[in-house]
Amino acid sequence: MLKIIPDRRGTKWGQMGDKRGFVVGLRLSMEFYELEAFKKLVAALDEARRLKSNLLIVSLPGMGASYYLKKYLEKGKPGKYISEAEQDLEESNILDLDFDTNGKALVQVDEYLKRAGAEQKFAVVINMPQILEASRFLESYLGRHAYKTYYFGLPGEEVVLQMAKYMNVGLSKVQKEKILSLTGGVGRWVKFLLGHLDLLDKPDEMMMSDELWRVVEPTVKVVSRCSHEVLEKLGLGSDMPELVKMFANKSEGSGEVDVVVGRDLVLSESGEPGVRALKIEADILNLMLGNNGVVEKEKVADLKWGEGTYDKFSDQAINKTMRRLDKKLKAHRIETISGYGFKLVRR
Q: Of the candidates 81, 59, 80, 88, which has an alpha carbon nearest to the alpha carbon of residue 151?
């Protein structure tokens, strides 16, 4: 059984202690199923299943929600884990379609829900929380048929301890506290730092590490697009992990599109509210955001004048609509793709 030992003369966590009896704290013997973060998720899933209702599980890339959900099923809970489109359904289903990298995730989830029978229910993982405030989500089948939301936030210290145990890494108290401060318990980050303990005392090298940036990047970019209210619910409001602060500037300089269409049709860019869009403009933007920033001219015509109307209107009329939308954007612009359509990019 592991014991926590004071950080004296290089003594490490995970040792059995020395003859002088410097043992001062907590025994680390909990198994994964005993983690509080896991217990809370289990309670939310079990309650949704008992009520026969759909559940949204809101998280961030790297938090470990997918791993926890797989462990939930491994424990013998009923249900099927689905990570791609067009799979067969069971009575209870966990849809984990990676909203962050899959531009079609919302459409695919809607398709699953629409073809489900009355007794088939879903837990849907959303690892791109900013979509919850977008009109395309609010008007989607999922947005109208999800009755409860669970925020899978920072697991905290217990994950650092558990992962150190699983990886057989001895930690000093100072090292544990540094990893917790840097990560907040984000599983992917904890795992990386446990394998690179030398970086804990080298902040400059940490900032320059491309390998660490690749681990941190997906989470940091999504965090930069979330409202303060959502971050609070995920445990990242007032106590932001140090790695988020360290890499925030690098994320802002990435050049990625960051536009959200609010439920009131107000456009938000990089978290800053802007002007109100027309309904047609919001529809065009949402279509672009769900297709890697690109839209065909024909699709613009379909949205503005109806299905199959492209041949009835000139490219000049379509361009006029897109120029009007372009003028409402401050941090982004709409580029013309010759012979095809339009692309949304940062200015």
A: 59
